[in-house]
Amino acid sequence: MAQTTILGRIGQLMRANINAMLDGAEDPERMLDQLVRDFTNNIAEAEEAVAQTVGNLRLLEEDHQEAKQALTDWGSKAQAAARKADESRSSGSAADATRFDELAKIAIRRQISFEGQVKTFESQIAQQTELTDSLKDGLNKLRAKREELVQKRDELVSRAKMASAQRQVQEAVRDVSVMDPTSELNRFEEHVRREEAMARGMTEVAASSLEEEFASLEDADTEAEVESRLSQLRTGAAAGAGSGT
User: Fold this and answer.
1) Mean pLDDT of the chain
2) Pair 43, 150 in one domain
3) pLDDT of the residue at 182
4) How far apart are CA 195 and CA 198, in angstroms?
5) Do 13 and 39 contact (CB within 8 A), yes or no?
6) How far apart, in whole angstroms, are the C-alpha atoms of residue 234 and residue 241?
7) Same domain, yes or no, for 21 and 102?
8) Which among 72, 115, 128, 177 could bridge 57 via Cys, Cβ 3.0 to 4.6 Å?
9) In this structure, is residue 243 part of a structural domain?
10) How far apart are CA 67 and CA 61, in angstroms?
11) Is residue 46 within 8 Å of residue 139, measured between CB atoms?
12) Which of the 8 DSSP states describes residue 27?
């Protein structure tokens, strides 16, 4: 019976220790998604089963009411026939009295038959009501369990995302610690200092070259002066020698 199968599934899912299952799962989030799908599917089947049992219960209740009405009607007919039989006997019509007695008996037999039907329907209604209540209770538990699973899944996903974000931050901090950007800046600063030193050196070299050129000019003038004076000395010495002769 479909209802029995659904009840078995509901009982199995209700007994499931979700926390223990998650603790032993390699991928808890994936397992939770599967559990949510299982519960959703079973809820859909349980809802269909509940709707079917409720529909069957309503049919039994309608049949029960019809049987009760028929029981009342045949009871009234039996009473009417019995009353007619008594009236016929009182009026001396034995044949009519016998005929109405037979009609009363037929009505009583139908009345007894419907009494049995009423009792049968009442028993079936009681069983169907119990089954319906059981399925409704299981359905409500399934819905509550599914909500618990959804909340658990959302919590787990949120925690997983937070943990991942924290891990990424810690890895970034670790990378910054291992590769300190200030060391790169220090190397660049040293490079700039060397470039600046080179520029100053080139400036000094250029300046020293100019000084050397000016110095060479001054040396040339000095040598010219020396040669001039030497020439004068030679000239003066030659003149002195001539006058002495």
Assistant:
1) 79
2) yes
3) 59
4) 5
5) yes
6) 11
7) yes
8) 128
9) no
10) 10
11) yes
12) S
